[in-house]
Recover the amino acids of this structure.
């Protein structure tokens, strides 16, 4: 966005909500929630996590996940992110969770997945990629609350037929609680 | 969008895809997939359908569904749409299906739901709202393929514990098949 862009909030004709509108050209920037797709990728009861090389939450551990792009299915997006962030080829079992992070306008579709081929490595957005046994997961260095939620959901249904997809846990049913960083202000995003 | 807005496609610095960019002000209009939320609302083995009062597919039958708004959870959005389109108060069982319509950049999160209170009526975007027994569903007048998919998914899991959420059916695994209208060109949308 150039420094000269001026946006104003007004209700377009025929609408019932304020929308962000370019004061100069009239373009309406509909701010719709964005879709994040990701996976809990397991092999022999160990889960794959990526240590983030980028902000927000650089240095913290996350699932391979990111924004769905136009023209992709949710399954394709989850597989692309596993490749981009963890150089992992994955097979999807199905939808483990659908999380709403209302505070930042995200819907996260999280799959239960397995490595389709052996091997993984850090992609450009990761410092390192590792598999963790449940008892070794670095809970204090997890990047976002929804990563914790997804790991717990996976733990409750790590093998066998996939159960019904879970929604947000009761502790943050709307995804509106700010996440406190151990070392500073609340962090946004998955 | 004003008649004077000029958009060009170029790859922003640090990105790897072309994005729609305002040639005048530099604003990048990220075109992310949008989230549609909706429900198969059942009462006594009959499903609630709305006859659309708006294009596309005016006059055809659909589920209560629509675009998720910022600040909503997927559950809240589905309940809002049931009220707006069918004046129905609904209780959600859980996620029945997650459909990708890659052709038009939609992710549809469809719930299995029940009427939480008796009563329903046409909202402003519906011509009429009715409950249909399975054998009375007007299949030839269904608005969109994903409505058929959701009804079939509901039929396969209409009662009892909710199973794993389904994805697109094999007949259109990516949501890329254009829908032929009986009376004209392919129609877009949910």
């Amino acid at each position: 966005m150039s420094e000269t862009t001026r946006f104003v909030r007004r209700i377009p004709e025929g609408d019932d909500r304020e929308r962000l509108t370019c004061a100069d050209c009239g373009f309406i920037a509909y701010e719709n929630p964005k879709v994040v797709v990701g996976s809990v990728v397991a092999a022999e009861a160990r889960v794959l996590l990526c240590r983030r090389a980028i902000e927000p939450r650089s240095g913290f551990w996350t699932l391979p996940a990111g924004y769905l792009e136009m023209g992709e299915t949710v399954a394709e997006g989850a597989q692309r992110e596993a490749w981009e962030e963890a150089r992992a080829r994955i097979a999807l079992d199905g939808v483990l969770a659908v999380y709403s992070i209302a505070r930042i306008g995200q819907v996260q579709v999280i799959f239960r997945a397995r490595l389709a081929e052996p091997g993984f490595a850090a992609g450009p957005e990761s410092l390192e990629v590792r598999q963790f046994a449940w008892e070794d997961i670095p809970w204090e260095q997890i990047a976002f609350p929804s990563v914790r939620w997804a790991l717990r959901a996976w733990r409750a249904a790590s093998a066998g037929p996939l159960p019904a997809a879970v929604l947000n846990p009761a502790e943050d049913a709307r995804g509106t609680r700010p996440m406190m960083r151990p070392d500073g202000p609340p962090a946004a995003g998955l």
